[in-house]
Amino acid sequence: MTDKITNWTSADDAMVENAIRRGASRRELLKMLLAGGSAVAAGSVVLGRATQAVAAEPVSGGNFKAAGWSSSTADTLDPAKASLSTDYVRCCSLYNRLTFLDKDGVTQMELAESFDSKDAKTWTVKLRKGVTFHDGKDLTADDVVFSMKRHLDPAVGSKVAKIAAQMTGFKAVDKSTVEITLADPNADLPTILALHHFMIVADGTTDFSKGNGTGAFVLQTFEPGVRSVVTKNKNYWKSGQPYLDSFEFIAISDDSARVNALLSGDINFAAAINPRAMKLIGGQQGFELSKTTSGNYTDLNIRLDMDPGNKADFVTGMKYLVNREQIVKSALRGLGEIGNDQPVSPANIFHNADLKPKAFDPDKAKFHFQKSGLLGQSIPVVASDAATSSIDMAVIIQAAGADIGMKLDVQRVPSDGYWDNYWLKAPVHFGNINPRPTPDILFSLLYASNAPWNESQYKSEKFDKLMIEARASLDQAKRKEIYGQMQTMVSEEAGTIIPAYISNVDALSSKVKGLEANPLGGMMGYAMAEYLWLET
Questions:
Q1: What SS3 class is residue 286?
Q2: Of 93, 220, 432, 473, which has fewest CB within 10 angstroms of its CB?
Q3: What is the structure's pLDDT at 133?
């Protein structure tokens, strides 16, 4: 027989939850339940339900300390110049963007109240009212115009200067309205402006040492290459946020040292844990691992304009020779998702899930190598620790080649100088690409005929035309169809092999709550400080 609760309403649930928050004892709570007509067994159910509800809700207070994996004396508080994860984390705590990407990869409004355009070329941006900078200044259209124009000034050295170059006109229509004109139509502008570099700073800012933004935290301490400390912005425009009283961010480059700092209680959060260091967490009580797969990947690049990549059958043979399952299992220790040789990951709303990766098939690989006339010849493959897990991947592919008589000479080169001396240059080599929020950015950087990072020198007039067509369309369904077609073209025609999308793993105290995945990368796209809370 089931105990029933009589005359019990949602208002009574709320009363119990509030009592739990106030610290009521279990005995006091049971008396409250019995008075409401609940039997003891049913009362326990209500208590469990109420306790879970309270635990899931954010609580305010606490000092959060996290460690990343990299820092530099060149660390900056200028969003336009941000280049490391540590820069992104700081900037996300101090500033806001016009838009941001949510956990599903959908563009949401932040400082912008709306983004409107009839032709994807001229955009009208309405700003939220009642937003102030840390120094008390009101946010206005002039701040947005100044922030955007900075990226076009060569003297600033913006890391997104090439992306920003498409913005050719800025106009403050009134105090809370901005008009942005593009050189050519681009329906992705609201999403592009969700990149970390496009944070809004106060009009006329030249000194960034104070971190004066509209963000959730106010700067207290900034020691480049060492640490930063920020405290709660009590005048933050987002009601109830942030939850933390303070946030300190440091860098510990060694994976094991970073995990040990977590286990010893020196920090609450250790970012980007190496699979080998994950073993230190093991079955430890009070600690958790958080996995995010957001589009980072290591790829094998075969230049189509050089020997041996200028022989189409060699490229096809290599795609059949890559054992994707083994790479995820062994090279990535299970921390990845199978890739299908194109850069738009499953974390992106435009990902083509119908495009299947080539199956590992040594016989087909051998057939194409024979057809290319290269079977038995020694082919250099350049790998380095600079490209995540590329050496392990290279060894796996090398072993598969040896089984069918294909000689792949893995040349391991130092990390220092790899990106300048080998990436984009060697006939067969590895790269590593960080997440980007839109297919257009990925294709423009990596696969357009004039792409600055065209890793395999892929060139297609049809592809270039499709890219322009998709960019100019405001029809989301049409763009998804075009981007799906472009992903298929890259997978089948380009000389890049993307075996897997790599997962980022963070380690944290079980008291840290609110952490979610984000397509812009780990640590909630580096914006975690604003959204996390510490369980009491």
A1: coil
A2: 220
A3: 98
Q: Which residues pair with 431 in a beta bridge?
A: 299
205 located within any domain: yes
CA distances (Å), 143 to each of 96, 133, 136, 199, 326, in order? 12, 10, 14, 11, 51
Looking at the structure, do residues 452 and 524 belong to the same domain, yes or no? no
Is 522 within the bounds of a domain? yes
Global confidence as pTM: 0.78
Residue range of the domain that includes 514: 63-250+505-534
Q: How far is CA 408 from CA 401, 404, 478, 499, in A?
A: 7, 11, 42, 17
Which CATH number is 363's domain given?
A: 3.10.105.10
Give the tokens for residue 504.
């980022």
Does the residue 463 lie in any domain?
yes
For helices 10-22 and 40-56, what crossing angle results, to 10°? 70
Q: Are residues 353 and 439 in the same domain?
A: yes
Q: How many CB atoms neighbour CB 471 within 10 A?
A: 23
Q: What is the pLDDT of residue 234?
A: 96
User: Cα separation of 268 and 422, whole Å?
Assistant: 38
Looking at the structure of the chain, the number of domains it has is: 3
Amino acid 23: pLDDT: 56
pLDDT at 27: 66
Each residue of 463-496: pLDDT tens digit? 999 999 999 999 999 999 999 999 999 999 999 9
Whether residues 350 and 418 share a domain: the answer is: yes
The CA–CA distances, whole Å, from 334 to 120, 209, 355, 535 equal 41, 42, 22, 30
DSSP H helix total and E strand total for the chain: 18, 21
Beta strands in 303-406 (DSSP E): 336-338, 378-383
User: Which parts of the chain have pLDDT scores under 70?
Assistant: 1-56
